[in-house]
Amino acid sequence: MDFRTELAAFLRSRRARLRPEEAGVRPFGGRRRVPGLRREELAELAGVSVDYYVRLEQGRTHNVSDSVLDAVARVLRLDDAERAHLGHLTRALRHPASTPPAPQPVRAGVEVLLAALDEVPAYVVGRRLDILASNRPARALFTDFDALPAERRNVAWLHFLDPGVRGLYPDREAWEETARDTVAALRMDLGRHPCDDRLCDLLGELSVRSEEFSLLWAEQLVREHSHGVERLRHPVAGELTLRRETLRLPDTPEQALVTYAAEQGSPSRAALAALAGGAAPQLWGAGNATGPRRPERPTARTPKKTLSLDRSTV
Question: Residue 308 above 70 pLDDT?
Answer without folding.
Answer: no
